[in-house]
Amino acid sequence: WFESHKIWAAGLIVGELCEIPSHWRETRTLSKWMNEHNIPGIHDIDTRALTKIILEKGSMLGRIVYDLPPVGISLFVDPNTRNLIAEVSRVSVITY
Questions:
Q1: Which of 22, 26, 36, 47 could form a cystine bridge with 15, CB 3.0-4.6 A?
Q2: pTM attached to this predicted model
Q3: Which CATH number fits the domain that encloses residue 67?
Q4: Full domain range(s) for residue 83
């Protein structure tokens, strides 16, 4: 039931991650779903404090990393240099 042909989130930050979901329609956990789509994530983050920092300092580039990237790999890719609308828009019309 996706309106796009793929997941466009580059990453996910959550305060609490539920590994034992109880919704009757659940088929997998959020962690498993993100792993299936190769979306990095981090949990146990104070999202209210993070939101406050962003409000005070303005939007900023960030990256979720597990290890330092190899030498020569750019730490950040500025999304403002890409045509994001063209990237996420459907190529053809889909009727639901």
A1: 47
A2: 0.71
A3: 3.50.30.20
A4: 12-88
